[in-house]
Structures are given as structure tokens and as C-alpha cells.
Automatic annotation (TrEMBL), chain A:
This is DUF2812 domain-containing protein. It comes from Ornithinibacillus halophilus. The chain crosses the membrane at residues 114-133, 139-160. Keywords: Membrane, Transmembrane, Transmembrane helix. InterPro entries: DUF2812.
TrEMBL record, chain B:
Keywords: Coiled coil. Pfam families: PadR. It comes from Ornithinibacillus halophilus. The keyword Coiled coil applies. PANTHER family: PADR-FAMILY TRANSCRIPTIONAL REGULATOR. InterPro entries: Metal_resp_DNA-bind_regulator (IPR052509), Tscrpt_reg_PadR_N (IPR005149), WH-like_DNA-bd_sf (IPR036388), WH_DNA-bd_sf (IPR036390). This is Transcriptional regulator, PadR family. Gene3D superfamilies: Winged helix-like DNA-binding domain superfamily/Winged helix DNA-binding domain. Residues 90-117 form a coiled coil. It comes from the Bacteria. The keyword Glycosyltransferase does not apply. Residues 21-86 form the Transcription regulator PadR N-terminal domain.
Length: 171, 117
């Protein structure tokens, strides 16, 4: 039986997402598909997996091969940026795809660079709106749409920076 | 290009990756070798390794080796710079241990004396 769950995780919260997916799997609900904030779970009380999420926009064939070799089953991806992997809980060996603090930190740094670029592009597309600002109601409407997006990005970037700093201190 | 000294000190993971590339290996081959030469002390995750390989290749410390027939995996080897970096790091670590040896033995001796009292 497939169970759908709607849930939003920010990129800075992938560790929370991993934890949630692993807990769901402990209860017998295993992620098999992800589409636009919707998680699809298959029910099977006899299994339990550890889930890991990896940010890798430039993933190539060799990347997937390496994870397969290391015993990680590929589940799905979120818009080709985040990749979901799982490993049987009963298996021996490491249950983390990042085995030291340094590489966890680097993964957050990569995320941050990516979202900064995206954020600048978003701002760039809105230059026209501010250059031609005449206080028209349509312009207020556009601003009302753009502003929450900008605020979300700023929030995300600050959260990512916090994660990087956290691992800096620990590492 | 950066000089070999500028890459030191290496992280534990990088040190072991370079050491395992004394022979041509693919990604998973590195993970297995590192586990062996560290006597099970270092179990590297694929995310850590994949990130490190990309970085080391960019720094010209390692390079993709010739493909091996019948295997689609990418194989890696040390460059001349890579070998230099590994040797320098080994010497650095060795001198750290060497310099401390005498004093650490004294400290251990004192500790043992204290225990006996």
C-alpha cells in the first residue's frame, strides 16, 4: 500500500529530513518516491532502512556507481539536486554517507554557494520591476509575490550559514 | 600551481585516500583499502570520498587513470605533486611523533608510578 505525506523541509534541514525518513522506516513506512513536497511511502513491516539525503547537482554516472558499490540503494531525487539513498538497518558498516565533520560542512558550503547564485539570479530578474517603479497596483502585486520569495531565500542562506558554522566549531 | 607544502596538513580522510592511491584504484576500491590499512579505524562514507576525489582532482593531486576494460568505473592515481604531498605529510607526522617520543615516555612513566602508589 502506498501512503502519501506532504511535508516541507528547507535545504538547511536535510539532517532533520533524514531523521524523519529513517524514523518512518522504523515504523515500516519506506520512502520510494518523491514528487514536489510529497513523500510516497511503501508499507512493509519486515524491513527497516537508514535514509540519507545528498546534495549533488552535478551527479554523474560514477557518483551513482560509487554509492551502489558502497551498499547504498538509490531511491529517488528531488529536482536533480537532492538524492535519496537508503541502506538496510541490519547491515554492518557505516550508516552515514559523510563520515567526517569536515565533509558534512563542505556539503553545506556547496549548498550555500548554489543558493547564493540562485538568489542573485532571482534578484536579477526583478531589476526591471524596480527600475520602472511607478507605484502601479500591478507593481505592488508583483512585489507582493517577489518579497516572500526573497525573505525565504535570506532565511535559507542564514540557516545554511549557521550549519556551516556549527560544523566549523565541532570540527 | 601551488607548491606541495601549501596543502599541508592533510585531513585524516585525505591522508588515507592518497595513501591508498599508491596503486590505481576506483572509488570503492579506495574505501575498502582505507579500511584495511587503517585496521578498520577509518570507514569512509561515499559522500565524503566523492567530494574529496573531486577536490583533489581539481588541485591536480590525483588524476583519472586510463580506463580498465570491462569496467565503467573511473580509476584514479596520484600525480607527481600528489606523491610529493603524501611524502611531505608523512615526514611531518613522523617528526611530530619523533619529537614527542621521549617526553611522552616520561609522562607515561610518571602516570604508572602514580597508579602504583
Amino acid at each position: 500500500m502506498t501512503i502519501k505525506k506532504f511535508k516541507i523541509f528547507l535545504a538547511s534541514n536535510i539532517e532533520k529530513e533524514e531523521k524523519w525518513l529513517t524514523e518512518m522506516s522504523n515504523k515500516g513506512l519506506h520512502l520510494t518516491k518523491y514528487r514536489l513536497m510529497t513523500y510516497y511511502f511503501e508499507e512493509d513491516p519486515n524491513n527497516s532502512y537508514v535514509y540519507q539525503t545528498d546534495f549533488r547537482p552535478e551527479a554523474d554516472e560514477d557518483y551513482f556507481q560509487l554509492y551502489r558499490d558502497a551498499g547504498w540503494e538509490y531511491v529517488d531525487d528531488a529536482v536533480n539536486l537532492f538524492h535519496y539513498f537508503r541502506k538496510d538497518n541490519r547491515e554492518q558498516g557505516v550508516k552515514k554517507i559523510y563520515s567526517d565533520k569536515e565533509s558534512v560542512k563542505e556539503s553545506y558550503s556547496r549548498m550555500m554557494r548554489f543558493y547564493i547564485t540562485l538568489f542573485l539570479l532571482v534578484l536579477l530578474t526583478q531589476v526591471g520591476l524596480f527600475a520602472t517603479w511607478r507605484g502601479l497596483w500591478v507593481q505592488y502585486l508583483s512585489l507582493g509575490i517577489v518579497l516572500p520569495v526573497v525573505i525565504l531565500y535570506v532565511f535559507l542562506l542564514f540557516s545554511l550559514r549557521r550549519r556551516v558554522k556549527f560544523y566549523n566549531k565541532k570540527g | 600551481m601551488k607548491r606541495a607544502e601549501e596543502f599541508l596538513p592533510l585531513s585524516q580522510a585525505t591522508y588515507y585516500i592518497l595513501l591508498s592511491l599508491r596503486e590505481v584504484r576506483h572509488g570503492y576500491g579506495i574505501i575498502k583499502d582505507v579500511e584495511e590499512i587503517s585496521h578498520g579505524e577509518v570507514s569512509m562514507g561515499p559522500g565524503t570520498l566523492y567530494g574529496a576525489l573531486g577536490k583533489l582532482e581539481k588541485q591536480s593531486i590525483i588524476t583519472k587513470s586510463k580506463e580498465i576494460k570491462g569496467d565503467r568505473r573511473k580509476f584514479y592515481e596520484l600525480t607527481f605533486l600528489g606523491k610529493e604531498v603524501l611524502l611531505l605529510e608523512f615526514k611531518r607526522l613522523n617528526s611530530l611523533v619523533d619529537n614527542a617520543k621521549e617526553y611522552i615516555e616520561q609522562l607515561e612513566g610518571e602516570n604508572n608510578d602514580n597508579k602504583e602508589v
